Amino acid sequence: MSDRILVLGGSGFVGRHLVEHLHRQGVRVTVPTRRRDAAPWLWSLPRVDVRRADATDPAALRVLLPGHDAVVNLIAVLHGDARRFEQVHVALPRQLAAACAASGVRRLVHVSALGAAADGPSLYQRSKAQGEAVLRQAAADGALALTLLRPSVMYGSGDRLLNLFAGLQRVFPLIPLACAEARFQPVWVRDVAQALVRCLQGDATAGRNYELCGPEVWTLRELVRAAGVWAGVRGGRGRPIIGLPAALGRLQALAMEWLPGEPLMSRDNLDSMQVDNVASSQLPGLAELGITPAPLSAVGPMILGPDHPAARLDAYRRGAGR
């Protein structure tokens, strides 16, 4: 394991689990954040150095990188226009590759997304693929020892998947749902964090790509229904779910884009769901990293149930021998 690791996006959903794993293993971790109050829990970890910095700024990257053995890039956006996706998913990887070359930090683990493709139907998928291509070119030029991870949709305590679906059902009497039959292979965020740790434990994964998926395939309708059941909505029955035709689904997404704050759904999200978000079976997965993926059907009730929190999740992992 590298002695000092820079985690870009370390205060986010995946980042906090990764930093926790690394800290437990005695690794010194640097987490840049634009707002010092973004992740107050990080300040209590003695081996975590929280720095106020904008990791999307090339000048900040040049200052942050020296002295580290490896970098993990978790920074991504789910919503935005073409310019925003270009900035975060393409320009940032390009700037990161240049900063790595200038500082001599070659080891990079980059989290992309399942479904990333140059000809994908959404801006999100295409921009993710373009960012991968930038980093692959830098690796081919000898500037990087690169590992690419492509996770499916991630769930876990505090997620914006199961908790979102459960929350909506606590408010609305029924759920109109676009792309109700879109298929996903959800992966537990703690399994993703463990995969990142395994990739950082040596150079054996350099030059390789991995698809990170759970063992079960779910439709969006099934995910929403399960979230309502596990959260005890309507006595454990959940709300009725009404699948929307494509045109009404796009109209719903357009209306959500105009609401204040980050949208619950965008038209680009709908475009992404035109392709099933499941493993291609053409790339290695969690098993090749020595990880048995947790099934959503086992972990989901513990996340949303009345007596869940972290102790039960940890108990599940210990019982599964991971």
Tell me what you see in this structure.
There is one protein chain. With 322 residues, this protein is an alpha/beta fold. The protein has a domain at 4-151 and 188-212 and 280-291: NAD(P)-binding Rossmann-like Domain (Rossmann fold), CATH 3.40.50.720. It contains 11 helices and 13 strands. The strands form 4 sheets. A 7-stranded parallel β-sheet has the order 3-2-1-4-5-6-11, with helices on both faces. Strand 5, helix 4 (123-140) and strand 6 (145-151) form a beta-alpha-beta unit. Helix 1 (13-24) crosses helix 6, helix 3 (82-103) packs parallel to helix 4 and helix 5 (162-171) crosses helix 7 (220-230). The model is unreliable at 308-322 (pLDDT under 50).
Task: Briefly say what this structure is.
The protein has 322 residues and is of the alpha/beta class.
Order of helices and strands: EHEEHEHEHEEHEEEHEEHEHHHH
Biggest sheet, in brief? Answer: 7 strands, parallel
Q: Based on the structure given, which CATH architecture of one domain is correct?
A: 3-Layer(aba) Sandwich
Read across the widest sheet, the strand sequence of neighbours is 3-2-1-4-5-6-11
- Average pLDDT taken over every residue: 92
Poorly predicted segments: 308-322
- The tally of helices reads 11
Report helical residue fraction: 40-55%
CATH fold name of one domain, please? Rossmann fold
Structural class call reads alpha/beta
CATH class of one domain: Alpha Beta
The first-to-last residue Cα distance is 19 Å
Tell me the total number of β-strands.
13
Strand content: 15-25%
What do we call the CATH homologous superfamily of one domain? Answer: NAD(P)-binding Rossmann-like Domain
Rg, Cα atoms, Å = 19 Å
Shape verdict: globular
